[in-house]
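name: query_chain
kind: protein
chains: 1
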Amino acid sequence: MADPIAFWRLAWAAALAEGSEHISEAFRGLLPRNVSPPGAVDLSALPTLGRIRMALSTMLLVEERETASVRSPATLIVAPYAIHEASIADFAVGHSLAQALVEGGAGPVALTYWNSATHEMRGYGIDAYLSDLNVAVDDLGGRASLVGLCQGGWLAAAFAARFPAKVAKLVLAGAPIDAAAAPSSITRALAAITPTAIAGVLAINGGRVLGALAFSLWSDSFSPEFTAEAALQRGDDPALVRLFNEWNRRTVDLPGVYFVQTAEWIFRENRLARGAFRALGREALLSAIAAPVFVLAAADDEVVSLPQATAIRTLCPQTPVTVRVERGRHLSLFMGRRTIAHAWRDIARWLADADSARPRPGKRARARIAPACKLTQDGTKAAL
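structure:
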């Protein structure tokens, strides 16, 4: 990973040399040339979710182009809001978890397509995203199954804890629920960047964190994860590899307040797992989640370590929790050919199955573990 202190010093020196009115532009000039700045959202390439249902300040609520299913409740995919844009959920035919959910009967299916932060959004915090998520759920009928991907997972879990009656089922895929359970690339990266350094970069960029900056600082740590072969579980299709590389270069900018709250509350202070997370005016306790939970994790995930993802089992004692661990790395959970064909098809059936929503008195759901590994008592993995 790039030395953050040296990077900030270089950024300030370049900015001051250009004059204060050119600070943001000078800072952008230091960023990698192969990372694309945020552009207009193009839904035409998405194989499944191409229709805008509603436009909110934080997101476009995107749904199926052709909605054949009238099942209720709807399934809402809560995309990650970190570095890349939300097409990770509907990447390509055969590599689309949204397509697997629709074809598996979990529809109607919608997606939170988060907007890249503008200057006017710089003061948005976590509550702004929970509030618009609440509006989206209400627009989908007032109760939905949530599918949280990576950092969309902790947001979905926080929503399910804050509004338990509005969530029918909860899927958490590669989601950092308990940051203290084990180290990961995210926790190590944040440990190397002080709050003072983060405040400095926010000042440079008018209260936002540029996606290109986040990518450049963390790309070395994430390099084993962010390759087409690891993500797609195949490297034999040049067109798909090119499509992945284009996706990987597209980044989104984040509001500074949201970024700081996520870094401090979720990762440094671990408020969600400790029962100290306040959401929209009230404490959001994971123990209050009433919906059955399905956890999908990757055996070799370095972005969100296995214990961070599976900790929800002990934090939600009153609801059935099913755990499935797949071979692969972080991005393969959302784009991998093998994971889409098997795990996400099974998740679709679980979402569509009315019986899986009925808790069994006195019993917890049995964890389903993929053959790549087993879980020890402390949540770490051991080879079979």
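note: The chain has one domain: 31-379.
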